[in-house]
């Protein structure tokens, strides 16, 4: 029993650390870099816990990450809409803004981890994976939630075909632009 209590306390302490917004007075590159592990943990935590509850403040955590992203001098994460059509522009889908932020955070996660050899296609793929994770979690809380693109991405990910789909969508958009 004592081990169970210690395990629960350790888990709660870890969760509290991962979801606590932190310092937001960064001024030097080293201060931004020292914050990266916390940004990564918070992005991961939000993907696994997308629903705000009385014991977690997903909005404060999201604002903390957005503040860091807006101010970080050495990292540029652009917002594209390659895979957001039908999600953020759907007036009947009440979670559109959550998925816009989730996608941005997923791309940011990739760029933080791959600063030396970043690839936009991989960042878009990571943003899509983030949306699939959050979609699956939200479906547990709101089984009536429906969104065709997110359901499609989820099925593609289950079948191992999501990466190819993302590559094809990017190629289609690039062909239109050229």
Describe the structure.
Helix content is 67%, strand content 0%. It contains 7 helices and no strands. The chain is globular. The N and C termini lie far apart (65 Å).
Brief summary of the model shown:
It contains 7 helices and no strands. It is mainly α and 178 residues long.
What's the topology here?
Elements (H helix, E strand, L loop, with lengths): L1 H18 L9 H20 L9 H14 L24 H18 L6 H22 L6 H11 L3 H16 L1
Structural class: mainly alpha
Q: Give average pLDDT, whole number.
A: 88
Give the radius of gyration: 17 Å
Helix proportion range = 55-70%
Number of continuous helical runs: 7
Describe the structure using short key phrases.
disordered N terminus; 0% strand; 67% helix; 7 helices; 178 residues; mainly alpha; single chain
């Amino acid at each position: 029993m004592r081990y169970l209590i210690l395990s629960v306390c350790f888990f709660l302490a870890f969760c509290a650390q991962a979801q606590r917004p932190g310092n937001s007075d960064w001024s030097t590159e080293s201060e931004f870099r020292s914050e990266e592990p916390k940004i990564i943990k918070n992005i991961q935590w939000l993907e696994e816990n997308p629903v705000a509850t009385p014991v977690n403040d997903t909005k404060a955590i999201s604002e903390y990450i957005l503040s860091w992203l807006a101010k970080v001098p050495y990292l540029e994460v652009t917002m594209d809409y390659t895979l957001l059509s039908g999600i953020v522009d759907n007036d009947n889908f009440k979670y559109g803004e959550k998925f816009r932020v989730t996608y941005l955070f997923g791309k940011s996660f990739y760029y933080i981890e791959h600063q030396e050899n970043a690839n936009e296609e991989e960042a878009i793929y990571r943003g899509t994976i983030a949306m699939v994770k959050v979609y699956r979690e939200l479906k547990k809380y709101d089984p009536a939630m429906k969104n065709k693109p997110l359901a499609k991405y989820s099925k593609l990910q289950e079948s191992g075909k999501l990466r190819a789909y993302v590559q094809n969508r990017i190629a289609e958009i690039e062909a239109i632009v050229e």
